[in-house]
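ERR on first pass: missing label on line 2. Operator R.T. fixed the label and resubmitted. Corrected input:
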Amino acid sequence: MPTFVYMTRCDGCGQCVDICPSDIMHIDPKLRRAYNIEPNMCWECYSCVKACPHNAIDVRGYADFAPLGHSVRVIRDEEKGVIAWRIKSRNGETDLNLLAPITTKPWGKHIPQLKDVQGPNKDMRDSQLLFNEPKYIRMDEGDIHTLESNGLKMKAGVYY
Amino acid sequence: MPKTILEDNIDILVCGAGLGGTGAAFEARYWGQDKKIVIAEKANIDRSGAVAQGLYAINCYMGTRFGENNPEDHVRYARIDLMGMVREDLLFDMARHVDSTVHQFEEWGLPLMRDPKTGAYQREGRWQIMIHGESYKPIVAEAAKKSADKVFNRICVTHLLMDDSKENRVAGAVGFNVRTGDYHVFKSKAVIVAAGGASNIFRPRSVGEGAGRVWYAPWSSGSAYGLLIGAGAKMTQMENRIVLARFKDGYGPVGAYFLHLKTYTQNCNGEEYESKWFPDLQKMVGKEYLDPEAAHLTHRPIPTCLRNHALINEVNAGRGPIHMVTMEAFQDPHLEEIGWHNFLGMTVGQAVLWAATDVNPKYENPELTTSEPYVMGSHATGSGAWCSGPEDVSPPEYFWGYNRMTTVEGLFGAGDAVGGTPHAFSSGSFTEGRIAAKAACMYIDDGKAEGIRISQEQIERRKQQIFKPMEHYKVYRNEIVAGDVNPNYINPRQGLDRLQKLMDEYAGGATVNYMTNDKLLHIGLKKLKTLEEDLEKIAAKDVHELLRAWELKHRTLASESVMHHTLFRKETRWPGYYYRGDAMKLDDENWHVLTVSRRDPQTGEYTMEKAPCYHLVGDDE
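pass 2 clean. output:
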């Protein structure tokens, strides 16, 4: 579906160019505004739509199977931690407003800086444990699962 | 010639920062607090990889904490779903760590839904938990950015660098900036390839713009395979492509519909159709793999490929289309909302399509179809590199020193790059990245990366090779008046069309009902060889086309591997994913093995071998 950009809303800021995973939002050198240079490599992922500060980008369903006259619009707000969608069908009978959370914490604040945490000791290095384990596996004092702890063997052949 | 930008003295280089790569970069900092950790990402790490647009579920969570499952339960599930062909050491290892990953995600702010009655995470199915995951990727990207010394966005990594002092040891990677066109050289002691699987190697069902609405992301260019195969790493299970039964055209997800909304399928006459195909199918695959009665009693799943087989055959019998019965579930306004949220959270295009075609699932049952095939290693299929497993689990054939290390020293994999580990999904891929990162740090600490030497010749040779498509364009463009028809070159789109057509017709794509055989594969391989020759003459008019040219080269390397593996395995192991018309039965006597290949980087010759298939067996079995 490819995305398209409204001429009067785009100011050429390039946020969409920076975020597009497919590298298809480019700035037109003459008009100095963004556009989709390769619609058949667009996944309709809405990354650019969400990133546009002027709501200048929208989506028109893929021409080979989607009729005209529909709309799926979105506003994503990192500060409030929510995303709001509005879906309107071609015949107007479906008109849905849907809201969903995108995070439960202030952005990035609860991710540890692993450079500063207590580093692993030799026992931990020699074990199968990863960071925060075994604690985080079950949020209790139990240890990691092994073949022995779970009464298992690896055997070649067909066993089922 | 373009400018060369060198990043030297890297300890851990992560190529590709989707879920696997972000997990690797994050964890590497813990085991290598003083190490230099660098990420090279083709797009922007905040929205890259297959999870760029979000997910509405985490499909791999044990829930041992809530008494739900143990790791071995998941191994048995993945084993039966893949008709026995998995690396159970790697699966067990991923499954025993994956919950610690998910619990950290929750702490970082990813909204995991809870069951109000039990307080446990809201289950969608036995392995799936429901999330509000629109920002899943930006959240894990924050973690990776915190751990990495540097993140290079918009770098298309084209090749791995190899050590010139010791054979079969990795030494870094090279690529180019898709915006500036600069040449980038990364010299590194260890490399973790966490690039993506392959969409768009088989001709898609869509015929125009919709070619972008592939099931797996269009930017998943098989670079996980292109990079590893190009470096001479052994690959496994590359024949095991996946076909998805999804909502027609939009390829919207069906997991939540089946599992949570309890929708079901029927043919055009409103009849249940799956079970009537099972008796014949059971003759093809044997009772060990398809036993509907046992499945009913024990909740053992019917393998995904076999359910595809029933759908494909019902359509071929003239009773299509297949419908998803939504009209019952959608009467409940809460479930109706979940149905729409599910698309908005991970496949917005399906919501767009239903809006465009006035589909209201409350009053009409939408159509399903089977997709074109995809090659990847983290969904219900396990293509990827042949990697070492963990010391305490792996039998000798599966173990050579470092967990998730490929057969090239110092070269590790995660996510789609690792073979034999289906059903890892997002959380399992992140977990595999963490496992690989720890092992890569150990590899360096053990002194295994000492004395690496990279010749200037290698660096220059790769540079010439990388930018050749742009040179080629400059040389021959003015021989013609205008347009894209030139006797001296093809452009990346033309090359991709040719690849997709030949893979479709000779390697079992959608238009031939997923059918191939020995003869077709031999013809296909021949055509692929000439395509490879023509790719030496591919032309790129700008840096963006250069990106597409290298994506195509990676896709082509992956495709060649798929063909060789498909040719090697003389049986039909996964009816519904593909059929060997000359060997229509599953053959456990000869083929209860994993297929392993190596492409000689110098000659391009393939060698194939069988590796034993080990299973986890309980004390009481």
